[in-house]
Give the backbone structure.
Amino acid sequence: MSLLPASPVHATTVLGVLHNGKVALGSDGQATMKDTVLKHRAKKVRALHDGRILAGFAGATADAFTLFERFEAKLQSYGGNVTRAAVELAKDWRTDRFLRRLEALLAVASPERLLLISGTGDVIEPDDDVLAIGSGAPYALAAARAMLKHSPQLSAREIVEDGLAIAADICIYTNHHTTVLELDADAPRSADAREAIA
């Protein structure tokens, strides 16, 4: 599943894959303001809830951090139930006068599922365990789906790394400085989110 917000989101590709007992979520590092690259190694993915949940954003950075904080609070309120926390955040995001103005999308990964959360009240779980957001999302999504179909022996991390690399070759708002976080899907209470920075 790939989704771009109503206003164009540049400088971002976030890709998540749930495959072979692992879930990986990664992003490129480019931060852009209009047509100028401001930063090459921005971190757009984070481990939340004591390393048990991964989240990434596409959109305005300050808005994304506000949403990360709100989502973390919802996770705490609902005992780490990702789906319930996502639905409650989406409700707040859509109805709260302050939150309604936030321009971002969240991609969330748990050992059990991937979710896209938007400000229009959407909480969407992809059918094929692949999720991408941002300006390079269509390219990363297509690459990941092709790898899952034709190279299923690849790990979730490898698919995310290669999908982001392909998106960076095509999308001018995506670069090759990536951050990929990974969780073991077979151990849903794992407190570790391993990080690799390329």
